[in-house]
Automatic annotation (TrEMBL):
<protein>
    <submittedName>
        <fullName>UPK3B protein</fullName>
    </submittedName>
</protein>
<dbReference type="InterPro" id="IPR024831">
    <property type="entry name" value="Uroplakin-3"/>
</dbReference>
<keyword id="KW-0812">Transmembrane</keyword>
<keyword id="KW-1133">Transmembrane helix</keyword>
<dbReference type="GO" id="GO:0016020">
    <property type="term" value="C:membrane"/>
</dbReference>
<feature type="transmembrane region" description="Helical">
    <location>
        <begin position="165"/>
        <end position="189"/>
    </location>
</feature>
<keyword id="KW-0472">Membrane</keyword>
Amino acid sequence: LPYVPRVPPMALLGKVTATTFALERPCCIFDRHASASDTVWLAVAFANASAIFRNPPSRADVPPYKELPTTHSYMTLETAAAAYACPAPSPAVLRVGGDTACKDQGRQDPCNGPLPSPGPYRVKFLLMGCHGPKAETRWSDLILLRRALSPSTIDPVPTHRGSDVVVIASLLASLGTVLATAVLGALGAKVWGSLCQRDLGTSAFARRSYRTHHIPPALPQPPPPGCQCSPPGLGCFALRPPAPCHRN
């Protein structure tokens, strides 16, 4: 068949990891060749072993996952052909290598275990009936997995930096210091100004004359009886009563 399996081109979380990769589901590819009892398999092989891969004559001859290190290929994801019919009722993405329990299983059943190395790999879909293969797709392009780094190879403190990086870091640090100084200076000036205004207001209030409005002003006191004020500078003097008049 002319169909070529491929990794989905759209953004997908975990599309390719260190042990797994996603594939588009081949919808409507086997409709003309499949019957109700047929199944679709996925053949996975190292890229350099795909040319020598031979389709198994029956289900009993399907290469299992556990022989991948020696045979460099295996078959997995056995699915009823109806799952790939039009319209496809199943999810549009398949995940290769998603069964982490495969390494602990001693059975011969097809297993979709984690891939042991980055590859690269090639895959193809194979339609099998009761009497053997009936149709197959082309091999995919190279699929390379991500490489996991060993914790011992990660340098937590890089020691070698270029001169440009050092210069840029120094400039950024200097600009940060200048900016912090300017901000602190502006805040200090604002606070100092507010304090000065507060002091000026208090002093002006203290110097302002204050006169109560509910106490009447004191009236001038009249001089004591028998005393009148002389012209300025002479003070006050006592007045003597006039002498009594005598009749002759």
